[in-house]
């Protein structure tokens, strides 16, 4: 009987741990473009999924949202590298990264994409007053996340000790 109770308890713990689990996925629909090729060579899908997972955990910890019940109800975060202009944008739980930006970036592109993903992941998880929050506030919070994580631009900017 004790063995059965222990087995049921272990199963319940495992189910509880996965009930709030978030999945992270990435794809590159621009792999035939110069930027898509550079993304595959210098960044990669596996690395990007890990960054999205790490960024999400960092965001939850930064904003004291460790429990799934304290967060926006998001089950999956996706990244698509696309042949689009700009840098990146987020729509709901989907992050769209510009292969054109990646291809034209003249620096450590892996570090830059890491920073962009932290910024965009912040948009996935942040509450925005049902679309009514000031855009500057929303962008400022995402920049704060990137800066606090230490992946802002070329690393020359430093977080003020007052904000740590």
Order of helices and strands: HEHHEEEHHH
Overall mean pLDDT score?
A: 86
Total DSSP E strands: 4
Strand content: 5-15%
Please bin the fraction of helical residues. 40-55%
**Largest sheet strand order:** 1-2-4-3
Spatial gap, N to C terminus: 51 Å
- Helix- and strand-based class? alpha/beta
Shape: globular
**Low-confidence runs of at least 5 consecutive residues:** 11-19
Q: Over all CA atoms, what is the radius of gyration?
A: 18 Å
Largest sheet: 4 strands, mixed
Number of helices: 6
Could you describe the 3D structure shown?
This protein has six helices and four strands; from the N terminus they run αβααβββααα. The N and C termini lie far apart (51 Å). About 5% of the residues have low confidence. Strands 1-2-4-3 form a four-stranded mixed β-sheet. The longest helix has 18 residues. The protein is 51% helix and 13% strand. The protein is of the alpha/beta class. 27% of the residues are buried. The chain is globular. α3 crosses α5 and α5 packs across α6.
């Amino acid at each position: 009987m004790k063995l059965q109770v222990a087995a049921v308890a272990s199963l319940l713990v495992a189910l509880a741990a996965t009930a709030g689990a978030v999945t992270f996925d990435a794809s590159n629909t621009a792999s035939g473009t110069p930027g898509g090729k550079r993304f595959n060579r210098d960044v990669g899908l596996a690395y990007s999924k890990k960054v999205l997972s790490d960024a999400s955990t960092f965001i939850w910890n930064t904003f004291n949202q460790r429990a799934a019940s304290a967060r926006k109800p998001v089950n999956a975060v996706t990244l698509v590298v696309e042949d689009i202009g700009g840098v990146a944008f987020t729509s709901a739980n989907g992050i769209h990264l510009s292969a054109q930006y990646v291809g034209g970036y003249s620096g450590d592109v892996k570090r830059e994409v890491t920073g962009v993903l932290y910024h965009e992941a912040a948009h996935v998880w942040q509450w925005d007053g049902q679309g009514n929050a000031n855009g500057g506030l929303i962008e400022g919070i995402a920049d704060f996340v990137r800066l606090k994580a230490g992946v802002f631009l070329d690393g020359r900017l430093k977080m003020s000790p007052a904000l740590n």
